[in-house]
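Why do we bother with a discrete structure alphabet at all? Because it lets us treat a fold like text: something you can write down, compare, and reason about line by line. To make this less abstract, here is a complete entry for Nucleoside-diphosphate-sugar epimerase. Read it the way you would read a sentence in a foreign language you are learning: slowly, and without expecting to understand everything at once.
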Amino acid sequence: MTSEQGPGPVVVVTGANGFVGARVSDALVRRGATVRAVVRRPGTARAQEGLEEHVGDFGDAAFAAQVVEGADAVVTTVHPMGSALDVQQRVGVEDTVRLAQAARDAGVARLVHVSTAAVYDRSPGVGDVDESSALVGDDADAYGATKRDVDLALAEVDGLTRVLVRPPAILGAGDSSVWNTLRPTGIRDDEAERHRVADATFAWVHVDDLVDLLADVATGRIGAEADVAHGPVAGGCTAVNVAGEPATQRDYLQTVADAVGVEPVWEDGPAWTGQLETGRARGWGWAPRVPLTDALGELAQCSRALV
């Protein structure tokens, strides 16, 4: 970790104009870091002191090598969720691994990858899920399968400390927010999107709590350790779950449905009712600050704005 007397760390953030990427960039700047904000289009990174916009394709080997040179950490937030399988494979897996290899070759100390809890098998009856739980199989959807594949590939990129941060549904206001804007729009417009098993688990985390962990690991506030109970394993690849307090699909869908003026359709059937365990993250000193009531209140406000 950079000393308090010296300059702050240099951190590369991919997708720095995105829902998570923009917020983690802000959090890094608040922690004294210099952020190299990687975006595809000029002028899309937030203009602020401590942030440098770098326009390019991180999957391009030459650009990747240039942007990571002299950096202390890299945070990867890009995955083209909803795109065709080949696009998710190329951008989410191959390009991310290429960037990780460039970071290793440049002597970068830490790579923090935004993974997802969708890599876990959360079939009915599985129960609670921790970082040692089984991953999805090849019959998973394109998102879960490709996110699993990039996690497994990053585990093979030796030479730097790698941290795979696995959030579930990410709540928080934003035009590009999947769970506060895009899914509520679908629920408003499409009756098929209003079907849920009411008591099924809705695992979630607020974006503000997620970026706290990302920024603390990237800046070394949560330092590498020999024991995974206290921090990511130095030189290893460590998965870590983040999640807020327990919630159900009824909590989420009823909040959105009431706000947009539609009726939910509650179905019977098997569903995952376990919890995403976060003991590892808590052992590192992380804890969620946003309670479910506040997150649902914000969700309702975002959903009402769509009417």
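What the structure line is telling us, in plain words: The longest strand covers residues 34-39. DSSP finds nine helices and eleven strands in the chain.
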